[in-house]
Amino acid sequence: MSQVLNRSDDINKAVKIINDFVYQNTKEYLNNNEQAIIQGSLKQLSYKSMQQEYLELKFYALDYIARNLAYDLWKKLTVIARSSSLFNPKYRVSKTKVWIFVNDINQGEEKNNTEIIDIPAATMEGIILRGRYQIEEHLFDRDSGERQFLARDRHLGDRPCLVIQRSHQTPRVIKQFEREGKALSQIGRHSQLPDLLAYFKEQQYLYLVYQYISGTALTELLTEKSWSESAVKFLLQSLLSILEFIQQHDLTHRNINPDNIIQVGNQWILTDFACIKEIHHSISPISHSTFAQGMNSYMSPEQHMGMANFTSDIYAVGMIAVHALTGIHPRKLKKYNPQTGNKIWRDQAQVSLDFADVIDCAISYQFSDRYRTAQEMLESLKNLA
Predict the structure, then answer these.
(1) Which helix (H) or strand (E) holds 128?
(2) Quick one: which of 188, 229, 334, 371 has the most CB atoms within 10 Å?
(3) Beta carbons of 19 and 42 less than 8 angstroms apart
(4) 141 in helix, strand or coil?
(5) What is the pTM of this model?
(6) What is the pLDDT of residue 293?
(7) Apex 93 CA angle, 201 and 158, nearest 5
């Protein structure tokens, strides 16, 4: 990191320049989250580093910071810039161009009190994949080595898309990638699933290009305040209808958790199919890398042991329902039945007996005691009074 990027006086001046520009055009200042993201971007920090450094961002999921808070901020600044007299209609603000944005504001402002700061050299533009998908911003890396980027589809009016990059092109990985791409192409044709726009190999990497989903992650909506039974039923019915569609293609998601469920308007969208697996009507082993990606508190016991089937996704959906009904994160639910291994949670929720029975069936410790398919669980919900 250069000396300029470590100079707090220039960083603070740059944040003030952007904040003043926003106020001049909207009569509102940036909120604390937005200022933290701008400050971190000026320091050229990753979103993960911002999450660790800034108190305002510590309690947000990393995916939510990168794909929601930051995305909305850059979109907001772009709209403000384009509506002002200083910038042209095609101007765009992004994380990698934030210093350029500060410099352009400074050059455009004809005021005697314009801040004098040292602007670091501009970073290079992102690469263009397949002559079409222009990388605009690095979002985050997963422990598995997978990298996620915000990109623009130059063939479709710069429509935003999500690019996932993977390495390790062994013959086995390439075969799995191609099988996964074909499966994802099928399940993408659903209103509550992001479309897979492309999958391909380029140089030493494998790429998946998805429709970009911007909304509110379920993580941000699950607080210590419990949800009403009717709201939880609606969420369950929505998620199970998606699972029913996936299971019709003999696939399991295997990483269902609140970070991967996005609310867009009144609709719930299920994202992140990095762990997807074909099921041949039997229990299938999962790789260590896939296992490590799951969110432990929502993962079924058999998946912890390296085995997953249709009921493993049903377990995850059931644990999300428990979280919503109780307002308690599953990792904090310590009580369980010593004879069955089933979690005890009803005493922490206002819930009808019949609905609680449905959820208990979904989160049974023994997968043979759960609903076999999402369709079965949906039927049970429909039969409730």
Answers:
(1) strand 128-129
(2) 371
(3) no
(4) strand
(5) 0.75
(6) 42
(7) 45
